[in-house]
Amino acid sequence: RVRNGILLPYYPPAFLGCFRDVFVDSHLVLPVVMPEDSDAQANITIGCSDKDKCDDSPCQHRGRCVSQGWRSYTCECHRPYEGTNCAEEYITARFGSRNLESYAVFSSDHDLGDSLTMSMFIRTRQSSGLLLILANSTSQYLRLWLEEGRVNVQVNNFETFVGQESVSDGHFHLVTVKLEGTEAHLFQSARSQGSVTIRPIQAQPGDLVFMGGLPDSRASASFGGYFKGCVQDLRINNKRLQFYPIATPVESYNLDQAVNVVQGCISDDACAVNPCLNKGVCYAMWDAFTCSCPPNTAGQRCEEVKWCELSPCPNTAVCQPHSQGFECLSNVTFRVESSILHFQSNGKIERSLTSVSLRFRTRQSAATILYAQKDSDYFTVSLRDSHLVMELHAGDSKDSSKVSVQSQSPVSDGEWHSVEFSTENQTLENPRWIMSVDGSKTALSTSQTAVRDLDFLKEGADIFLGGLSLDTGVKLSGCLGSVQIEGLLLPFHLDTEMKLPRPQEEQFVRINSNATLQYGCSGASVCSPSPCQNEGVCEDLFDLHRCSCPSEWTGQLCEDPTDACFSSPCLFGNCTNLSEGFKCVCELGYSGEQCEIEVDTCDNSNCSNGGTCLKAFLSYTCLCPQNHTGQYCELPQFPVSTCKGTRWSYSCYNGGNCSEAEHTCYCLPGFTGQW
Ligand SMILES: *[C@@H]1O[C@H](CO)[C@@H](O)[C@H](O)[C@H]1NC(C)=O
Ligand SMILES: *[C@@H]1O[C@H](CO)[C@@H](O)[C@H](O)[C@H]1NC(C)=O
Ligand SMILES: *[C@@H]1O[C@H](CO)[C@@H](O)[C@H](O)[C@H]1NC(C)=O
Ligand SMILES: *[C@@H]1O[C@H](CO)[C@@H](O)[C@H](O)[C@H]1NC(C)=O
Ligand SMILES: *[C@@H]1O[C@H](CO)[C@@H](O)[C@H](O)[C@H]1NC(C)=O
Ligand SMILES: *[C@@H]1O[C@H](CO)[C@@H](O)[C@H](O)[C@H]1NC(C)=O
Ligand SMILES: *[C@@H]1O[C@H](CO)[C@@H](O)[C@H](O)[C@H]1NC(C)=O
Ligand SMILES: *[C@@H]1O[C@H](CO)[C@@H](O)[C@H](O)[C@H]1NC(C)=O
Ligand SMILES: *[C@@H]1O[C@H](CO)[C@@H](O)[C@H](O)[C@H]1NC(C)=O
Ligand SMILES: CC(=O)N[C@H]1CO[C@H](CO)[C@@H](O)[C@@H]1O
What we know:
eight-stranded antiparallel beta sheet; Crumbs cell polarity complex component 1; mainly beta; elongated
């Protein structure tokens, strides 16, 4: 080191450690006790403690202790703590307390260049509001505001990007914006939320930092209005922007102005004007409230009454919550003798009617399910040829305003089917009407039309279920589930059957109050008495039965035996059961499919010469005419020829000739004997 041109001797750092038994000329120099204020004793203590100062955990709020030799330590504090022992916390500033417009302005006296890191803790429940603006005399070169709960960052009035995670959940979030050269980054806690390429900014002494809003409330409004919430430990680079200074000295910006900013982070009393309805009890939370709702109510403000928990429906029905009310859903069985149900709007229906949905089940191939009419407008849902057909005619009476759609597949199969009839896109001038059966796209039928809605149904139309109003048209035989027009039920139950009247404004009501209904869905009694014969088991398939036959029987009613030989079809023979019927093996003497033909032994008989064939068992005999004889009458029957021998005369029979020798005859073939 040089002072006044003279080179000073080099002094190493002061010794840190222990000495003992230091003698000078046999005098003990150290350790030695000296007066307290003695200069020679400075920074010397008795003993040789090598205890680490960090062993006592001096750093509070989870600050990290860094040991520095034996004597001292430093604390690395977590934000928002500060001070030697991290004992001090930056003081939180409350903006928008009691919904006042509040903001604070800081001025910088530092040259930041083009690298800037701004960070702060924020806590809010508002999804929008202005957080921070950095501005010089000509430009607001950094803007931060909340939109839909997420932080928006804009640099140089131009490059903008949005954080991915919402911060408006009522918890503290550390928000960090880094502008480095041509890049801007946003972090929430340690997680990156996005980045954008920017033109470098130039922050200069005298630039202003607006926190929570701008003095001009209209300018603030364009960023979602004034911020409502809390801010703590705001920093730009290493400088603090303190609303309320802490005791620990830190490098800070100057607070120029603070309007309606309040110390601390005290919540507004959200329960001051009880927001909970229906006798719900309000509990205040930070800038929010919850309602403890009495039973039967729900919703954030207990605004929904759970009507169904009051069991308002008759026991043949199921209660379904409905906006501001409830509906009693049930199925109804229609038979030829059932009444047709008649409905009308209660005159208070506001919504536009653009859809109809219903569930049904039938085996009828033709019937009217729903029919609605007002003047020349009508709407029908019917079965034709086992297919579902919907027809709509509304508005002026031109043919082009008629809609007719038919299901692609048959529906009269005894199964439940759900049908929806609706416009595809209300925003189009000529919306397409779509019928979807069982939600299947394949059964989707469309039609182009000028008919936009079914609003005539709410304007005094008569709506009938189960048949036409007149006695023409085939009445429905089957079941109907809930029928809804734009979500409004055509109720099978009368209000007088319910324990509570339905409270909702918009309703359809049943008009014919003395109609008798058969609730639930039951088919005709097709199995009692059982039509199945031979102990076949009857299965009810809804308005249709099926017989499950024992193995010996078959046919619709188990009336046919499976054994083709059951009826002994082979008259004279043995029967064999085959897949394609039976086969007879006939006894001798019989033929034919069923051995019914007795074999005619006289067919092609050999009886000749007019001999008559006489049938016998497996054989025949020939009855010969007089002039013939033999087995087949093949022989002529000759008279006796008389022969005269030398000694006496004799006779040969049956054509036999006299032989030259006396007493013998020449016989014809077939004959023998002496004569
Ligand atoms: C004692 O130590 C402190 C801290 O290291 C130092 O500032 C001070 O000058 C020392 N005193 C003497 C007399 O050296
Ligand atoms: C204001 O800031 C912008 C952006 O950093 C910079 O381009 C402009 O020169 C600054 N104006 C003044 C007057 O400092
Ligand atoms: C109507 O019938 C269907 C099909 O059997 C059934 O799922 C539904 O629960 C019934 N609805 C009511 C209200 O009983
Ligand atoms: C409805 O039609 C409008 C106008 O053509 C179109 O922009 C929109 O995407 C359609 N919406 C649907 C769900 O098809
Ligand atoms: C309902 O009652 C009215 C009058 O009480 C009667 O005129 C009408 O025929 C009845 N309808 C049925 C379906 O019983
Ligand atoms: C008769 O034949 C049919 C067809 O091969 C078969 O289904 C049936 O079981 C048979 N009946 C008996 C009694 O073997
Ligand atoms: C018919 O069946 C019986 C008993 O199996 C047998 O004795 C008889 O020979 C059969 N007859 C013919 C024509 O096959
Ligand atoms: C008729 O005679 C011929 C020749 O002897 C014989 O083959 C045939 O079986 C006979 N016919 C009858 C039906 O007896
Ligand atoms: C019987 O006599 C006639 C006449 O002489 C002859 O043609 C015939 O062959 C004789 N018959 C026999 C069996 O000898
Ligand atoms: C009944 C019959 O046919 N009789 C004849 C037998 O033979 C003689 C001679 O050939 C005939 O005269 C018969 O008429």
